[in-house]
């Protein structure tokens, strides 16, 4: 069974971030033998004075492959983890989705896209979750994080929003790699030019600081841009500032 786990608003300005909490949850699922987890993605939501958030208002989400009987214990584990490990003053929310059981994936994905541009209420989030048949729960504070958690699940399901939490790591520090070598990385499904097209597999790519992939078409894509200097590399990975739109 493939499920989505999304969380939001677990931190304060002094604590570890929601991304780290999501990674710890994924590790906990695997250590307990419930299944395997994908990489975690960060999804930027609407920033507005009417929306309380810690620093950037972003939700975290990942897929997990679990056994048919593991859904209830996994949900209970994540709920307990959030209640125990979320920072004081936070408003943590949890969403657990079984995509094949959702009554309308389109509605869930549309909710995620709306949360990137509109202020949405908790009542609306809970109403949609009940109608779609997904788990949505709050685990401290005001519970405001349920909005972001539901939105994060919808955006990950959509597959055209979000970027890898953390950065790609390689066996050895390499200033340049061929596209074919980049494609061997377990977290890289494709290498594409930011303005369209795809580099040749033999092209060299200059690896910048903290390279990361973005979600496009449901794939984990490493975006590159042309490199105009005299080096052998024809491309460079996009600087993180240019990834803020994803």
Automatic annotation (TrEMBL):
GO terms for molecular function: DNA binding. Keywords: DNA-binding. It comes from the Bacteria. PANTHER family: DUF1743 DOMAIN-CONTAINING PROTEIN (PTHR40705:SF2), TRNA(ILE2) 2-AGMATINYLCYTIDINE SYNTHETASE TIAS (PTHR40705). This is Predicted DNA-binding protein containing a Zn-ribbon domain. It comes from Citrifermentans bremense.
């Amino acid at each position: 069974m493939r499920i989505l786990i999304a969380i939001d608003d677990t931190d304060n300005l002094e604590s570890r971030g929601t991304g780290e909490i999501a990674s710890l949850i994924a590790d906990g699922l695997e250590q307990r033998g419930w299944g395997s987890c994908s990489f975690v993605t960060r999804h930027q939501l609407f920033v507005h004075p009417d929306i309380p958030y810690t620093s950037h208002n972003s939700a975290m989400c990942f897929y997990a492959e679990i056994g048919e009987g593991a859904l209830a214990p996994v949900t209970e584990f994540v709920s307990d983890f959030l209640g125990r490990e979320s920072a004081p003053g936070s408003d943590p929310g949890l969403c657990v989705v079984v995509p094949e059981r959702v009554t309308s994936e389109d509605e869930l994905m549309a909710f995620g896209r709306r949360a990137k541009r509109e202020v949405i209420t908790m009542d609306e989030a809970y109403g949609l979750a009940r109608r779609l048949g997904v788990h949505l729960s709050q685990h401290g504070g005001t519970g405001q994080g349920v909005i972001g958690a539901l939105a994060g699940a919808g955006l990950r399901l959509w597959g055209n929003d979000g970027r890898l939490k953390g950065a790609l790591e390689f066996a050895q520090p390499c200033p340049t790699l061929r596209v074919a070598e980049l494609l061997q990385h377990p977290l890289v499904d494709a290498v594409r030019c930011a303005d369209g097209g795809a580099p040749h597999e033999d092209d060299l790519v200059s690896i910048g600081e903290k390279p990361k992939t973005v979600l496009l078409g449901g794939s984990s894509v490493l975006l590159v841009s042309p490199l105009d200097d005299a080096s052998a590399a024809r491309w460079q990975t996009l600087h993180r500032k240019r990834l803020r739109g994803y």
